[in-house]
Amino acid sequence: MFLFLSGEGTINVDGTEESVGKGAMVHLPRFSRHFVTNTSLSADLSFVCIWWGAPAEDTAADSSVCRQEAGMAEVPFVSPFF
Fold it and tell me: What are the phi and psi torsion angles at 30 (to 5°)?
């Protein structure tokens, strides 16, 4: 889930793009392809990424296969907050 704190931008989830800004909350389906774009030339787009564990029936192997099929790296998603 992404919670947008400030700025303006877009989020693309599995090919569907939506505008986002302060207060927007976006739920991401498991293993979805997603990316965020800051559309402002003068302000930062700030957001918090929240995630939690997968259901107990999922295994690391299932996750790995899905990530490989989606062309994703074998590392967890990390938000670049400093």
Answer: -55, 135
Residue 73, pLDDT score: 44
C-alpha distances in angstroms, 57 versus 54, 61, 63, 70? 8, 11, 11, 21
Backbone phi, psi, residue 37, to 5°: -125, 130
**Cβ atoms 77, 28 nearer than 8 A:** no
The chain-wide mean pLDDT, for the chain, equals 76
Domain ranges of the chain: 2-69
* Distance of alpha carbon 50 from alpha carbon 2, whole angstroms: 6
Please give the sequence-ordered ranges of beta strands (E in DSSP) within 7-76, or none if there are none.
8-13, 16-21, 25-26, 34-38, 46-49
